[in-house]
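The aim of this short unit is practical: by the end, you should be able to scan a pair of folded records and say something sensible about each. We start with the first protein, listed as its amino acid sequence and then its structure tokens.
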Amino acid sequence: MKYLSGVAVLSLMLAAGIAADDSGATNGAREETRACVQCHSLRLIHSQRLSKATWTKEVDKMIRWGAPVHDRETLIDYLSEQYSDAKPAPEDSRSADGTKNSSMAPHDSRARGGN
């Protein structure tokens, strides 16, 4: 019986830890949306791959410039976990000039109605 209650306690502790991790990510995403998208697209933020120290510098710089960050630590933890320099950068579906890649490049005379 002691074994079962120990297993039950351990299961509850693990479930609470997982819930806390999910809640931290949810709170971090909310903070990101509230504090960052007033000036930046999520695409810009999500394309970054920075260390925790660099995310900290970026967040602190944005706060100095007026970003309405309410929970600095949650935001830094979220950004440094989700967009870590240890993760690969996402593939960009746009060309270098910011237009969508297509079969007809902007420099193609057919795209401008030329010969």
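Turning to the second protein, read its sequence before its tokens, just as you did above.
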Amino acid sequence: MGKTRAAYPPEFRRQMVELVRAGRSPEELAREFEPTAQSIRNWLAQSARNAGRGDGGLTTAEREELNRLRRENRQLRLEREILSKAATLDFSLGAFPIGSCAQTNIARTQGIIWRRAAQEFVIYVRSSFAAYLRAWLDDAAQV
């Protein structure tokens, strides 16, 4: 099994890419420095993608955006799952379109749910029940 180490700093990667472009081979640099020749070739390919000359793979900025969108998607799915456990309403877009509003019992609390966007809901409850509902939803998120 290979060793695990911290990622190389971006400046170090840039220097390795520049040395390859200046004529040194990845294998030669791998012997002289710590990264493997394959890592150096990967950095070279990523650098070409970032400059618009790549093999069609994602640029660094696109990869960062993709990761951010995946995190956001996971969060939205979790929030939707929690909300679906909180009330006995059908939250599909067909049954509960954007702009819809419904009064229901949420965790033994009377409340109003308003769909603001496809994956965004607002819950209104009496202020005296707000802390209880928040704790209940937090507990539901742990399941």
